[in-house]
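Before a computer can learn anything about folding, someone has to put a protein's shape into writing. The outcome of that step, for a single protein, is printed below:
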Amino acid sequence: MAEIFGIPVQAFMGQLMLGLVNGSFYAMLSLGLAVIFGLLGIVNFAHGALYMIGAYVAWFVLETVGINYWAALLIAPLVVGAIGLVIERTLLKHLYKLDPIYGLLLTFGISLIFEGVFREQYGVSGQSYSVPEALQGATNLGFMVLPNYRAWVIVASLIVCLGTWALIEKTSLGAKLRAGTENPALVQAFGINVPMMVMFTYAGGAALAALAGVLAAPVIQITPLMGTNLIIVVFAVVVIGGMGSILGSILTGLALGLVEGLTKVFYPEASNIVVFVIMAIVLMIRPAGLFGKEK
C-alpha cells in the first residue's frame, strides 16, 4: 500500500479531508465574526450560541414539522437572523460608542442565557440529524473514499464565504456599508439609512452562524454546548487572520483546519493546542494578524 511519510495514503488523505471540513466550519464562523467586528466593532461572543441555535432549529423543524434539510438551510438562517435583529435593536445599538469590552461582556452574557435555556429544555445529551438522502454514500477517488456530505460541506462553505467577501468588498452595497460604519453622519447626509444597514449587518452575521450550524448538524451531535466548544478556536482563527479582515478569516480558517488535520496524523497529542500555538507565534511577529492592518 502506498504511503506518505510512512502513513498509508488513505489514512493521510482522510485526516486532511477531516481537517478541511473542520476548516470550512472555522471559515464560516470566523467570517461572521469578522463581518460583525470589522463593520460594527462588536466582539460577538454570542456567535457560538447562534451557531448552536441554527443547528437546533434545523433539528426541530425536521422532527416536529417534517421539513427537510434543504428547507432548513433557508429557515434556520432566517430565524436566527431575526433573533439577531432583536439583539441588535434592543441591546447592541446602545454600545457602539463605548469601549468594545462592553460588547464582549454583553454578548458573553447573551451566550450564557441561550445555553442555559437550551440545556433546560433539551438537556446535555446530543441530538442526531441524519445526512440528507441525496448526499448519502461516498465517492471513490482512487486514493481515498470521500463521503459525499463532507464534500458538500466544503463546496457550500467556499461558495458562502467567497460570496460574502465579494458582496462586502466588491459591490456598491458593501462600499456604502463600510462607509456608513466609518462615517455614519456623512453617509446619512446622502439619504442612506445607516442604522438599518447596521441592523441587517448584525442579522447577516447571525444568519451565517446559523447556516454553519445547519451544515454541521449531520456530522456532529447537536448539544447546547456545541458553540462553546468551538468559539474559542474560532476567535483564535480571527485573531490570526487579523481582527476584521474578512478574507483573512476565510483563508486562515481553511488553513488552520488543514494544519490541525496534519497534526492529528503526526502528533495527535498536540492537535487540540496547535491553533493556539500558532496564534501566539503570529501575535509575537505580527500583532495585527496575518491580514490585519496596523493602526
